[in-house]
Every structure is written in structure tokens, then in C-alpha cells.
Amino acid sequence: METRPFIHTTERMAAVVRDARQRQGLTQSELASRASVGRKFIIALEGAHPRAEVGKVLDVLTALGLQPRAIPVPPAWASTADDEIVDADT
To answer: Cα(40)–Cα(23) distance, rounded to whole angstroms?
Structure first.
């Protein structure tokens, strides 16, 4: 199991949570109970709905045994080894 997934979009978050929950044989209700959040929150999270409740998202990831990684996006002015400009939106 991937315990340190790279999560950079709501869609990726949804896939990571859903896949981990299913691998562990948990229902959405069971995961909600384990993470101390409501089932509707799990449904919204797995549906890739944008959420502002980062603390609850972290509670869900912790309940699944996942520790996401954060990698900073290089600033738009940063250049690569070939001195080409890096687009921060890619």
C-alpha cells in the first residue's frame, strides 16, 4: 500500500481515499466513524468536491494510515537545468 501518496488535486485526493478505503474493506460509514467525521464528508471527499476543512481531510488520511507528501511548486521565474522557464501552472 502506498502510505505517502502525492496528492495535488481534489481528483487525486478522491482516488487515494477511495482506493485505500476499498483496499482495507471499509464502507464509507466505517471510515467516517474511524475518522470521526460524517459519512456525507466522506462522500464529498471521494466525489472530489472542493473542501476547505483541511483538518478533517487529514483525519481521514490518518485513519487510513496515509501520510500525504507536499512538494512545493517551483516559482514561475525558476529555470530548469537547460535554462528554460518553468511554468508554475504545469
So the answer is: 20
Asked if 59 and 37 touch (Cβ cutoff 8 Å), the reply is yes
Binning pLDDT at 50, 70 and 90, where does residue 78 land? low
pLDDT class of 68 with cuts at 50, 70, 90: confident
- Report the candidate in 80, 62, 64, 73 with the shortest Cα–Cα distance to residue 1: 64
Backbone angles phi, psi at 66, to 5 degrees: -105, 140
What kind and span of H or E run contains 30?
Answer: helix 28-35
Which residue is listed with cell 512538494? 71
Supply the mean pLDDT for the chain: 82
For the entire predicted model, the pTM comes to: 0.70
